[in-house]
């Protein structure tokens, strides 16, 4: 449950422009789609995917760190890690089970005999879009448990794109279609309050001191 008094206290520290920007951005945030990346060896690609999620309004990025366990490249993410929720998993199975339990269908972004072109993809269902490694693609476990397969139409000689480029193209296309649809894709009221609180805390310097002082003066 969100402490509305504490939220109001923190937001009073922010400028009006900052608060208005939060609300405007949150109007376009969604969890209808979520992105998952699997064991990305070059972490600048994961950072770039995160940046695309932030720019195009995807609130959650799921990172499977089964083999490499590297950290986000903050220079490439350019602050996106402050605004996107990053869920990390130590195994493919754990990630798949968690996302399925949340009601997402698993969509593997890879050419497959039963694949679907991006423009034909059914956006009505909550979907977790999986992107694989640069070298090996998606794992066999994900391919076996996938509910569907999605690919980008290509007309040149080259048969593949860098993962961060692929993710940007797909995320932009699907989120744009989503916003022009009648689907209820927005965050819930409580989710918006949660993000307002988290983003306010991320925006205030010395938040730990301010938070400790507030709760000392306002014990619950």
Automatic annotation (TrEMBL):
Sites where the protein binds S-adenosyl-L-methionine: 109, 152, 161
tRNA/rRNA methyltransferase SpoU type domain ranges (all copies): 33-171
SUPFAM superfamilies, per database record: alpha/beta knot (SSF75217)
Gene Ontology molecular functions: tRNA (guanine(18)-2'-O)-methyltransferase activity; tRNA binding
Alphabetical UniProt keywords: Methyltransferase, RNA-binding, S-adenosyl-L-methionine, Transferase, tRNA processing, tRNA-binding
EC number: 2.1.1.34
Coiled-coil stretches: none
Catalytic activity: guanosine(18) in tRNA + S-adenosyl-L-methionine = 2'-O-methylguanosine(18) in tRNA + S-adenosyl-L-homocysteine + H(+)
GO BP annotations, alphabetical order: tRNA guanine ribose methylation
Function: Catalyzes the 2'-O methylation of guanosine at position 18 in tRNA.
Stated family: Belongs to the class IV-like SAM-binding methyltransferase superfamily. RNA methyltransferase TrmH family.
Protein's UniProt name: tRNA (guanosine(18)-2'-O)-methyltransferase
Organism of this sequence: Flavobacterium limicola
């Amino acid at each position: 449950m969100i402490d509305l008094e504490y939220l109001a206290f923190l937001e009073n520290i922010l400028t009006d422009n900052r608060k208005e920007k939060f609300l405007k951005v949150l109007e376009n945030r969604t969890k209808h789609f979520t992105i998952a990346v699997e064991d990305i060896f070059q972490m600048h690609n994961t950072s770039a995917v995160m940046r695309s999620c932030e720019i195009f309004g995807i609130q959650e990025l799921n990172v499977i760190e089964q083999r490499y366990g590297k950290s986000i490249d903050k220079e490439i993410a350019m602050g996106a890690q402050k605004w996107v929720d990053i869920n990390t998993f130590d195994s493919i199975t754990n990630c798949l089970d968690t996302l399925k339990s949340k009601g997402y269908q698993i969509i593997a972004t890879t050419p497959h005999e039963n694949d679907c072109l991006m423009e034909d993809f059914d956006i009505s269902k909550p979907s977790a879009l999986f992107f694989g490694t640069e070298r090996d693609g998606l794992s066999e476990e994900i391919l076996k448990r996938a509910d569907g397969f999605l690919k980008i139409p290509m007309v040149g000689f080259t048969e593949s794109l860098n993962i961060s480029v692929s993710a940007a193209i797909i995320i932009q296309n699907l989120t744009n279609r989503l916003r022009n649809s009648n689907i209820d894709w927005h965050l819930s009221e409580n989710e918006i309050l949660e993000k307002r609180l988290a983003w306010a805390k991320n925006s205030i310097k010395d938040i730990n001191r301010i938070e400790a002082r507030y709760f000392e003066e306002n014990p619950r």
